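sorry for the late reply, my laptop died twice this morning and i had to redo everyting from scratch. anyway the thing you sent over, i finally got around to it. pasting the sequence first so we're on the same page, its 294 residues, then the predicted structure underneath. double check i copied it right bc i was rushing
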Amino acid sequence: MVVGAAQEHLVMRVLVTGAGGQIGRELAEVFTAAGHEVNATTSASLDVADRHAVRHALRSLAPEVVVNAAAWTDVDGCEDDPDRAALVNGRSVGHLVEAAQEVGAHVCHLSTDYVFDGRKLGPYAEDDEVNPLSVYGWSKLVGERELRPDDTLVRTAWVSGRWGRNVVTAIRQQAAVAPELSFVADQRGSPTIADDLAAKILELTEARTGGVFHVTNQGEATWFELARAVMASLGLAPERVRPITTAELDPPRRAVRPANSVLDNAALRRHGIALLPHWRERLDQLVTTMAANR
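ok and here's the structure:
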């Protein structure tokens, strides 16, 4: 009880960047609900690629924790503009870390499964070799390398949530107009629910747990398997989804995706931190919540 009572008044000043995105919005909500003082910025209110703006913001707000969810996540768009990708996803992290160092703030940064090349047969652990196949993955790796050893790096994958565009919203829209949907069956990853991810990031940052962590819901799937599960959660016939190969995508994707980007949450287990529930357990709840907010 003494520890719990002590924890109750440890209110942190938190800066959440990228709060206009699906993960950033969840982060702002979960930190606020936990009683912390949250400043949530979007790309319109704080351009993380602007070093001077970042330094001014952190000096003004004096956060104790910076949670960086800002990113350019258009994977194919990054192929067309690698310089922008490197700035927004890479060097901007250095801006935040530099400013955080000045004010004594801990940084938690979000990265991606796309830093791996997908050639491993099993799930990727945190210390596996990185080898991005795309400009997006490369730019996110640049950002990872800007962090200090005691900062928190969270890699996640295949995120779906209440806000923004994701596989659940895409399937809802497609299913309303198309009798048949096509999803690739030769890419495998770790589906993740955004509010689960945000809650685990809260836990890691409250404890100032530094290092690299893979944070996903448990279980794995291909996009085809995930799409069929979403259809079932929507009360629609899963058989309407047919499997295709990546090579059959029309139009083809400009960026190469890893065939296997399943993430092993080994660091969470090593630290004795509870894992997130299986993605199938949470998918029905997400779909129900999204329908209620429609």
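Confidence is low (pLDDT under 50) at residues 1-7.
thats about all i looked at so far, will dig more tmrw
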